[in-house]
What does this fold into?
Amino acid sequence: MVSLCVQGIAQHSPETVQENDTAGSAIDAYNQTAAANELVQPFSWESAGDVLKYEILIEQYDEKSRRFVDYVSHVTTEEETAQCLVYFDPILPPGRYRSTIIVYNILGIREDSLTAKDEFVVRTARKPEVRSVSYVLNMSSTIYLDDLDNNGIIEISGTNLLMPPASNTDIYYTEYRLVSGRRSIAPQEVLSHDERDRRIRLRFDMNKLERGEYHLIAQDASGLHSEESNGSALAVKFKKRIDFDLSLNYSLPVILHDKTFTQYMNRRVHPLSATLRMELLPFKERWGYLGFGITANYTRMKTKYDSYTIDGNLMSAHFNFVYQLPAFRRHVIFELHGGIGVAYFNHFVFHFAHNINTIRLNTVNLSFDAGISAQIYINKRLFVETTADYIIARNKDIQLGMLIPSVGMGWQF
It folds into this structure.
């Protein structure tokens, strides 16, 4: 079989107007209205071997009848040269075409077994120009990933900003991409487009936009594309590079395992409790935030019997490593944390009648914390927080394990 090898359009003026198409069965022909630019369309194919000549028949696709119609071009190569290159004159107008390449061997006999058919497209070149890129939310060329209302809508102004292709047979269109290094992100949808092809509004997926510098590149059907410039630049970054969260919660510790406390205090749940959380998050990326923090818990324990009363304070503080994952346009942040600290059993005393008290028990024990939390933002700074921590404290006599759920309010500085 003859294999079609398409070349790009050539031009007799110094300025180049075409880039080769990567598809082997398409020709990108560019029409220009300027009289100074004389365009020619080179059409080439691979040699079939010992050939006397080739005959090239070109048919055009008719959209109304939805079939290829009679020949619009018929070219025969010169004898004894067996050229694999011809020029269409006059040039083919934009449209869909089908080529038939007929091979004649060195004896001048037609070789039907080597006859090849292939389809190609002639497209019009309209090089796009991007003059400005604006993020609709803040009317600037910067997207802040920590804005609560990010919608990914970008407005582009320039020239030759056509609609994207609706199908692979479209001849007139413009494709759009945000490009940063090797990253290339296509828009999700077109929201608006003006009839003069000077302005278009696109929506991009915010989950695909990593922190960095981007350029909006527009490329027409022929492969001509806009250039990177200050006007096409778009920055994606965090408005606040470091977050500091402070929250105060009401907590309800539940003792899961330890016979000593349940035996003496005669209860597992201690409602007089509070939790203070402070977290610093200096490492922020699209996939989440990393940092560290301190979680401090206070619980007042008291139990009354017929002849005596027991009371005391249980305090703990832990240094935790923190990972946060923003979700729902950063209106909700999920968190995992865990670390090491101390549990302090403070002033545990037995009180008897006639003001008789035992010696105060004070002891500090190594403890570990692991927990999850969720922050729901009411506005950019104020949030509601719910947390669940598991704390285990150990010494030679006690192995205290507690689940501490809590809920409260917080502020991000």
